[in-house]
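Hey team,

Filing this mostly as a record. A colleague (T.K.) asked me to run one chain through the structure pipeline before their review meeting, and I want the input and output archived in the tracker in case anyone asks later how it was produced. No errors, nothing strange. Just documentation.

Input sequence:
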Amino acid sequence: MIDCDWNPGYDIIIYIRYRSKLREKIDTKDLVIVDGHNFIFNFFKADKLSSENLMYLRGKLIADLTWYKNQKNCDIVVVFDARNSDNPSRGIQIVDDTKVIYSRKNETADDVIEELAGKKTGYRRIFVVTSDYMQQKVIFRKNIYRKSSREFSLEIKDLKNKIREKIDRSKKDSDKVFFSFENRLSGKARKRFLELRKK
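Output structure:
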């Protein structure tokens, strides 16, 4: 007989408490689901882009979304339409802590987004970023909201401006407090200090 102190009842209680804390943490967060290509084409006002430009803009969008996620403390999923590909299954990647999904063959981004919005639970609110007409009609349900591509792009731009202004103010305040040694001296002392520095 093996003597051990393992108490399954205690471990179950600890696990339940852990899950409860995790659930509380998730319940305070928002989830943002972005229709990637829809956002890119609407934001850049382009019906067609070369594959190189599209790849670059995908990367830029993901970088902006990751930055937004870190500022807003939310979860982000960006969905790209790959229905014309030969992939029988969805492509799923985690890029800089942002979830990226490519739809499978003959599956639209709308299909993926509707499924995600319907199945994702435990979030305070779910926002779907798209300017697609069908999504505008389907998305409205309890705690699920729609943002247009333009509205979301303006939100990101406004947030960046606020952060930039905050950094500028902080820098100005820092300059006021930590000015150079020579500027702290009186007229005569400053003149003497500058003469000594030249020698």
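Quick notes for T.K.: The first helix runs from residue 8 to 27. The radius of gyration is 26 Å.
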